[in-house]
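WARN no homologs supplied; continuing
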Amino acid sequence: MGSRYDGVCLRRPGIGRSHGPVRPSCLGRARGNHVAEARGDSCGGMAGAAGGDEATVSREMAGNSFAVGSGRCHRASTAQRGRESRRVSCVRPGILDGERGAGLVRRLIVREHRSPGRIAGRIAVERPGLMVFASAIHRAINERRLDPPGLTRTRRGIRARLRHKGKRRHGRGGPEERRGEIPGARRGGQRPEIVEERSGLGDREGDAVVGKGAGACLVTLVDRRSGLLSGGRCAAHARRDVADVGIGALRRHPESRTVTLDRGMEFADFEKVVQATGAVFRFALPLHPWRRGGNGDTDGLIRECFPKGAGFTAVGEQEVRAVYDAIDHRPRNRHGYRTPWEVHHSTVSHLL
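OK structure emitted
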């Protein structure tokens, strides 16, 4: 039987046939690019002419040659294209390549403003069969494979829906503290060790989220251990209204023992809250926002729903409560992607 050996592009010995050819390193680049003809020759004759091994030539002819008349023909370019085609067909599709995984991730980013890390962590907890890494989600976002149809023409696409939107955090420091002293206030540096370690429930951090003008505001009280958010809307940004909301929030959580507050004058009536609830109040040191880190992160989540410059006068109590509940059911990295509600109440929810 006649045969034609046109170019050499052989696999390395020991590699299976399905992997296809490799570069002609086994016979040398010069011989691999050489066009050799062998009509009626055996594999041994072709291997001797090309300077390769007979078994290697036999495997290559069996896997990557094609019929021409009554003989066989082998071309390096054709074998390489076949190898590339087989390699692509054997690649396992990723979770984000299908609409099931991509749709879930897209919904959690666009509607619930989840970060890629929290999405990947919560999927591992609740749906281990859809295992996906945060780096894969970031890569899909940067490649714009997750952009919804309505965002495809924008410059940033779905990246604009991430929490920080690419903005950099400010460093520590800042202007000198100019707010007045609150009479009877304890400094936050005097907190007991059990409070610093976040080892138990009932130790909270507090702040006020102020809207446009001197109208209504929001009071936020965050548990240092679980991150559970409580508080509510105040009709006015005044010490009396803030104290009344604080009393109601702490009474709904009788386990509350200590509260570390911001140094704003809206908390000047804290003694009224102490008498009503028995909680111990302390105030953070000036220019030490990391002493209330959990409360600062929670305020940032609230600002996603109520941006700076927006007022709270037209915002109802039910809308505020819906935002607070959404934050309480947001998975947290420090809890192994469990939610503050699950940690605080020792329960398990289904969120996906």
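The longest helix spans residues 76-90.
OK
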